[in-house]
Amino acid sequence: MPRHILVTVGTSLLTNRDDRPWGGWKHGQDLPPEADVIHWLRRADPAAASAEIHTLHRLEVGTDDALFFLCSETPEGCFCAQALQHHYENLGIRGEVQIITGLTAEPQAFSRGLKSMIDILLRRIRESEDKGAQIVLAATGGYKPESAFLTLLGALAGVEVVYLHERHHELVRIPRLPLQWNEEIVLRNRKFFEWIDEEPRPTEKVEEWLKGNPELRFLTAPAEDGNTYLTVAGSLLCHAVLHPRRPRVVWPQADPRSPAEKNGLSGVAHERPAGWENFVRWLCSIDCVRYVRFDGEAGRGARVRLADAERGHIFVRYERSGEVLPLRVETTAQGEAQTALVAEYLKMFQVRRI
Fold first, then answer.
1. pTM exceeds 0.70
2. What are the start-end ranges of the H helices in the chain?
3. Helix 75-90 to helix 34-41 angle, to the nearest 10 degrees?
4. Which residue from 19, 189, 337, 349 puts its CA 20 to 30 A from 78's CA?
């Protein structure tokens, strides 16, 4: 399944300090020539080049993926996003830049910028779903509040969120959480939400609505332009209820066999990485797993990837100290969406077993 990876972009490409020619760059200084940045990135260590590149490197992006870089409405934010886009296009990976209007360092506009980001993300998620793509939110770069709202959006929209701290070597994967919106407040006030979300509304007009509906007050906020808008939380709630996404994929049914019956590997540990037995036992203990067996095809590509989505088969590669154990994990999943859900789970927890 192709992935659409939505990436928030910061300025670490400019501000990281090492051997890069523009090392020591500070906000307010002239930006380096983009051609110099692109040339340097060709040989740069992905773990040090920038927060975004480090995250995408750990996600093992490939030519089947599409990247969407969301940047602040600042010269340096746009510069970094465009440089990243061109870098990945040189690697044969599609990329697109989306500037988030209002997302600047100015506190007066920042809240509206976050709302604009949520609107963009929700639209992108719907478009990606229509194309049958797996969606990943990469929340490493950008302002800190961006990561917070991306995490909330991912949890409530059922989308995987990944984060990579600069001192980490592995991704933090924030799982899909079984949270539900309280839809009643939106459904009960549908006309108000449709009205205020359609276009900017004068504050005095909004106040007329709020007098009789005080529960809506904390979902709106007045702005200096004389209009009142939905807050970021209000916008999230409005779009989630009035523009519902496709039904979430459910976890596959359990296989009734015991873990020992699912284990198709012998107990001989010849030329197998240390700890492989515990890893295989963990795989076999997962309820939807039918059978685990050796398969050399899993020795290449991503550590976890789909093998046969229609039959619920997943390639999993266990590695330690240079030794590799390639596996095919057969599950009860049916179809690409359900098999991808199980693969996502394996990606999320595999690193803890290595």
1. no
2. 12-15, 34-41, 46-49, 51-58, 75-90, 107-130, 144-157, 184-188, 190-198, 203-212, 232-242, 259-262, 276-285, 336-350
3. 40
4. 19
Q: Give me the amino acid identity at 95.
A: G
b/e map 196-231, b = 16+ CB within 10 Å: bbeeebebeebeebbeeeeebeebbbeeeeeebbbb
Give which of 173, 108, 174, 100 is closest to 143, Cα–Cα.
Answer: 100
Distance between CA 276 and CA 354 in Å, rounded? 9
Report d(CA 155, CA 136) in Å as an integer.
Answer: 12
Q: Six-digit token pair at 159?
A: 């989308």
Kindly list the distances between the CA atom of residue 45 and the CA atoms of 51, 57, 307, in Å, as whole numbers in the listed order: 12, 10, 30
Q: 44 near 106, Cβ under 8 Å? A: no
> Per-residue confidence of the chain (354 residues) as pLDDT tens digits?
688 999 999 999 999 888 899 988 888 899 999 999 999 999 999 988 999 999 999 888 989 899 999 999 999 999 999 999 999 999 999 999 999 988 877 766 677 788 888 888 888 888 888 888 888 999 888 777 788 888 878 877 778 888 886 666 677 777 666 556 667 888 899 999 999 988 999 999 999 999 988 889 988 988 888 999 888 878 878 877 777 665 667 899 999 999 999 999 976 556 788 889 999 999 999 999 999 999 999 988 888 989 999 999 999 999 888 889 999 999 999 998 899 889 988 887 654 444
Answer for the pair 321, 309: CB distance below 8 angstroms, yes or no. no
Q: Nearest Cα to 283, choosing from 265, 300, 271? A: 265
The identity of residue 251, as a single letter, is: W
What is the rounded distance in angstroms from the CA atom of residue 112 to the CA atom of residue 108? Answer: 8
